[in-house]
Design a protein that fits this description.
By secondary structure, the protein is mostly helical. Helix content is 75%, strand content 0%.
Length: 110
């Protein structure tokens, strides 16, 4: 119950912050295989690997510690939660954005 009260009485993105804190790791696990597959299908992995091969062929350089799938997944989740936060803030601030009976009941209180 403390989580529900914190979400209801919290700041403009309290629900988003809660969902991010409690679901981000699981979402990453769900997104990673999809992102990896699409990057492979689009040729991004091959292009990145070719670029890194050329880069590491330069004397005194080494391949950076970088995981393309992790990066794309992380940025995708950042975008997802940023969009969710914008919508949540709008719902909290603008009564017209409360388009369902539940949203009206929860956020329509004084």
């Amino acid at each position: 119950m403390p989580d529900a009260k914190g979400i209801l009485n919290g700041g403009p993105t309290a629900a988003t912050d809660y969902f991010r804190r409690t679901t981000e790791a699981r979402l990453k696990g769900e997104f990673d295989p999809i992102v990896e597959k699409r990057l492979g299908e689009l040729g991004v992995v091959r292009t990145y690997n070719d670029l890194m091969d050329r880069y590491t062929a330069i004397p005194f350089t080494r391949k950076p510690e970088f995981n393309l799938t992790d990066y794309v997944t992380s940025k995708s989740l950042d975008g997802l939660f940023a969009t969710l936060a914008q919508e949540e803030a709008k719902i909290r601030q603008d009564p017209a954005a409360r388009t369902t009976a539940l949203l009206q009941r929860v956020f329509g209180r004084p």
